[in-house]
Task: structure prediction
Amino acid sequence: MRLRKHVKEAGRKIREIRMFARAMQSDSHPILVQMVPIRRCNLDCSYCNEYDKVSNPVPLDVLLGRIDRLGELGATIITLSGGEPTLHPDLDAIIRRIRERGAIATLITNGLLLTPERIERLNQAGLDYLQISIDNVRPDDVSKKSLQVLDLKLRWLAEHAEFGVTINSVLGAGVRYPQDALAVSRRARELGFSSTVGILHDHTGQLTPLSGEQQQVYEQFRARKSSLFSFAHFDSFQDNVSRGLSTEWHCRAGGRFLYICEDGLVHYCSQQRGRPGIPLEQYTVDDLRREAARVKGCAPFCTISCVHQTAMLDDFRERPRETLAGILDRRRAVDPAFQPPALVGMLSWMFLDDRRRGFFGKVLLNALGIKSKRAARAAGTTGR
Ligand code: SF4
Ligand code: SF4
Result:
């Protein structure tokens, strides 16, 4: 089991590098797609506007068709969210199809329905990552996603999961005891999981600044070391969000990030539903390009960190030297002894120099079996 887990982990890292290389080569495929297989949820967190109590699961054949279409558009990561996706009776088949389409498969769940047997089936299906948000230590009227309720599930995950597990703790409006976020994070690390902190947004995805005590807790998270793809910790967006400040950035939702609702419509994100509101089966590379380029008025105070993270990949592609230097400078302002993870060091050496970028870009893509843009155009296989 341990060996199999390590082998799977190595495979995931290779596919992450592949995702990164592809994001560096192409400016118009979706890097990250969030897809809703069921809108129903078995909880009712008071801050949430993303669930109902009545919806049926989206039929399997419909979901498989959507995944195939996302594969044609070149999506590299597909995240299943909800509602509560583990309520879908065909979850394993959905994950399997995501993997067959070459994308990284991730799942956001409240964890309530996890059992050793359910975790085994997620292993078999090929799930890459699972994320649980834990809002407090003890359940209250805001949220039942509590360490006390979920600790047994976390132990089962530690024992059985062959996929990566991230525990997200939260700060912001509605969080009564900010210190709970640290307790959640400590427990996550004890069990060998990654730990992140998210800042709760209001019902439109916009910002509420952290209180003094919450800000102190956030600073403790910020001072910690993190892994290569945990950009949030390197990220000036999060710092501004925590202080209630606006951020200048270009949101590429509708292009690099897609939110596919249960009706199969493409939206910018969970908080901007209805725009552009085009059915996925009609969505084209032109739509991806147009919407990625569109300036969104909600961007300055947006808190949707996964869209910020995809934007960072584009910043890196367009201005690698400045983006990486900015990330490292910010990190060293918090921790002067900070050394970037080895993989970041290697990638920066490969991609920061113009000559090396061309050479290693081709080598990496060939090694990973990805066609370059020029080769793909010559073969007439893609508009990306
Ligand atoms: S568990 Fe998640 S989807 Fe369900 S109500 Fe809470 S935040 Fe919303
Ligand atoms: S800026 Fe982008 S990600 Fe943020 S709320 Fe607006 S559309 Fe959504």
Summary: The chain has one domain: 2-344. Residues 2-25 form the longest helix (24 residues). Residues 205, 251, 253, 268-269, 271-272, 296, 298-299, 302, 304, 307 surround iron/sulfur cluster (ligand 2) (CB under 6 Å).
